[in-house]
């Protein structure tokens, strides 16, 4: 357990910092006014791209904002949906960016969507396989435990592939949001700076998630190689 925490500590510390950064920058950006509410900004961006079919709904929770490609629905949390602030329009524009990616078949998004079933199945099964494999390895020295642990690593590999493909998807959505908010005069120079801080902070959460999966794989590879030695 101590060795596991040592492997994951960089990712966990980065995630804690990133989540704190998102909350702090969101709070600061919420004090910077914008010309439109988050919902209105997203609607404007979607309509300008001809995506009149994409609906915008308010959803409950804090920063639960997301785009549903199956239902063609952009769901925004109350503060993002209603507030006329840099934080609200920044996050709303980011999610609208995903709708644009979906409409114009942005290649990394297509790959990410195709990888969802494998990542979901692999991630759910990997934890169970890792536990079973480690228990068998603890009780005996046969090949079954390492073989099961290797399958767990493959499952985590599917999750890591999904996370790696997801990074350019998220970075591109943020880049689109920053550019469109400025071009459409939804934010001024001060608002653009606040949007930049909020979306950059959010990007670090995806980096931290990717690092966590990578370090988990390295930990189990370490266990396997140590066993063989």
TrEMBL record:
The keyword Hydrolase does not apply. The chain crosses the membrane at residues 114-137, 144-165, 203-223. InterPro entries: Zn_peptidase_2. Pfam families: Zn_peptidase_2. The keyword Transmembrane applies. It comes from the Bacteria. Keywords: Membrane, Transmembrane, Transmembrane helix. PANTHER family: MEMBRANE PROTEASE YUGP-RELATED (PTHR36434:SF1). This is Neutral zinc metallopeptidase. The lineage of its organism: Bacteria, Pseudomonadati, Planctomycetota, Planctomycetia, Planctomycetales.
